[in-house]
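Run log, item B.
One chain of 482 residues. Sequence copied directly from the ordering sheet:
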Amino acid sequence: MFKPESLKSRLALALAACLLLTLPVRVWITSAIFYEQTVGKLDHFLLDKLRFLKTVVAQRDKRVALVMPESAFQALYDPSDPEYFQMRYAGSGKMIYRSPTLGSYDLPRVGKNSAVPVWQTHTLPDGRVLRCVGLAFAPDGQQGTAPPALVNLVVAHDFSEIDGVRKDLTLLLWQTGVGSGLLLVGVGWWSLRRGLRPLEILSRQMETIPVSGSEELFSLPAPPTELQPVLGRLNELLVRVRLSLESERRFTANAAHELRNPLAAALSQVELALHLLEKDATPERAVELLHGVVAQQAHQQEVLDNLLLLARLEGGVARASDEPVEPAVLVLRRWKSCLEPAEKRQLKVSIQCPPDLPPLPRGGNLVDIAMRNLFANAVQYTPEGGEVRIAVRHREGVFRLMVENTNSGLGPEEVGRIFDAFWRSNSTTEKGQAGSGLGLSLVRAIATALEGSVKSVLTADDWVRITFEVPMNPTGQTPEKL
């Protein structure tokens, strides 16, 4: 179907317009070349004949005549292809000889004052168009005492046939040009439809493939080379949009899940504190309740910050710093915040961090957050009197942080779920240990954002080991995306 607004219709119209506009030029050029070549050959033939006749003209005293055998003379009068020639005295114009094929008409005195051939196209009164060539010369082989005569010799040939052929050729060129143009437009339209079919398929897929709630991607059967990067980029953008939307939905659901009960509890405590103050009861209890509300709100603020960071990491909009950071500085700074809780729980701690480790070229801010959560998780969920081991290594361009702690009762299946958002083990819930279940989810999101990995295992001697690895020089463009 022809649609003027479609790309293939516009290309087809452009092709048709190009053929239509160039057709007169092509016809004119072809006709001009044919005319030039044909006239050139005719002129060459006439010049040869002029030279021949010049050689057979002789002067006897005052008389000038053609001297040639009778058979050659008769050959000049071929009725199927008549030739025309005439001789005059160049000065007086008196006719010497005129070919019978001219009838009662004379040829023009072409070249009567020129020793070199002169060309002219002449039309006789009866409509015949002639191509003429003539010159003036003195005949060779003069005999007698009369002075040499100057003769004007003109040779001509019928030009009407050539002119008619030229017109027929022009008409034929127009007819074949229009016919071939229509054929080319048809073939071009068919080729454009086939060539642009991948774009049509891609356009329909853009209208039908849902942005969310589906894993379907753009695809083409045997995509052209020019469309392969476009297809890959579209799929990449579609995946990013879906991840962003999924991250937003997850953030909304997580925020509602995490904040619903604490907000209700805080509201109840505030109402109870107000009730106690209105009854003139001891204010210490009301103050205690309000301090509890402040503590809950601080915890909820931390949860919200973690949720926001998790959503930004999963959506690919968090930024990684480009400032180099020493790993030893990060480890010491982050462990200081865990030193007091570790001492209260009487934990045995060992840290292995060589001082000559190369600095992290970028992403130090995110690695710092990952360390904070890994250290806090190890201290919080290690049984009292247990042990925590921290080891930092650099090998083959990879930064590795390994945190091990005494197991608090996790099984192999539970260890594999510790990175799920809001997941907490049954033993942790039963013991009433605080925590939101977001810390290790953040660690996994940071590792992914920095093109690294994080994994957890239960060792043979019943230790929980978490290994966090990120490349020192990632190959992707994560810094801009982050």
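Observations after the first pass:
- Confidence is low (pLDDT under 50) at residues 429-434, 476-482.
- The first strand starts at residue 57 and ends at 60.
Flagged for discussion on Thursday.
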